[in-house]
């Protein structure tokens, strides 16, 4: 029985041979245009950051123990422990500051009353008379703003007596000594005040 001779392998066409011998186009493109890889480096072990602890001046931190609230300075007030927030001496400090501000505003109001009693009709020059009247109008606008501030001061003094002073009306959280020093009549924390102003800007009063 005769065997059929095996057929010799048919050589691949030129395009097929080139595609089999050459690397994939994607690989060739990556090898040609990709940036060189940096040599591997051994990174040191991470170092824990050193935390610096701020230490308050012991003289300031303990001054409130030996001083009356009205005699404390702002620096001594800010150095007090957080646990002492709105204690009797802090309330006395702000009561004294609010009362002094109230007395100052009332004194200014008395001076305004005296100025307005001046008769501008005796000034012969109309230009001078108009200038005086303009000054009176400006002073009245200033006193009107101070009148509103007097009302807020009186409300703050009532809040001190009731134990609500220093705490936000909306959230009940502490307003903070820094904000109260800048605005003793504040009734909202900074965050609550910003939210209210944003609502007023978006929806009106």
UniProtKB/TrEMBL annotation:
Q: Where is the composition biased (Pro residues)?
A: 1-11
Query: Where is it located?
Result: Cytoplasm
PROSITE patterns per the UniProt record, alphabetical: ZF_DKSA_1, ZF_DKSA_2
Q: Write down the InterPro entries for this protein, in alphabetical order.
A: DksA_N, DksA_RNA_pol-bd, DnaK_N, Znf_DskA_TraR, Znf_DskA_TraR_CS
* Swiss-Prot/TrEMBL keywords: Cytoplasm, Metal-binding, Zinc, Zinc-finger
Q: Which NCBIfam families match?
A: dksA
User: Which proteins does it associate with, and in what oligomeric form?
Assistant: Interacts directly with the RNA polymerase.
Q: By what name is this protein known?
A: RNA polymerase-binding transcription factor DksA
Which gene is annotated as encoding this protein in its UniProt record?
dksA
């Amino acid at each position: 029985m005769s065997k059929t001779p095996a057929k010799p392998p048919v050589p691949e066409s030129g395009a097929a041979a080139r595609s089999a011998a050459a690397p994939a186009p994607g690989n060739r493109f990556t090898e040609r245009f990709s940036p060189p890889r940096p040599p591997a480096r051994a990174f040191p072990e991470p170092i824990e950051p050193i935390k610096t602890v701020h230490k308050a001046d012991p003289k300031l931190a303990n001054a409130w123990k030996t001083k009356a609230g009205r005699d404390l300075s702002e620096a001594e007030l800010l150095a007090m422990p957080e646990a002492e927030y709105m204690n009797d001496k802090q309330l006395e400090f702000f009561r004294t500051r609010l009362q002094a501000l109230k007395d100052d505003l009332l004194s200014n109001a008395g001076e305004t009353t005296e100025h307005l009693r001046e008769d501008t009709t005796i000034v012969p020059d109309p230009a001078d008379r108009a200038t005086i009247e303009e000054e009176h109008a400006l002073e009245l606008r200033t006193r009107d703003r101070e009148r509103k501030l007097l009302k807020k001061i009186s409300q703050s003094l009532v809040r001190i007596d009731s134990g609500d002073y220093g705490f936000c009306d909306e959230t009940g959280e502490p307003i903070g000594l820094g904000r109260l020093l800048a605005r003793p009549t504040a009734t909202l924390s900074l965050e609550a005040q910003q939210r209210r102003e944003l609502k007023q800007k978006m929806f009106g009063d």
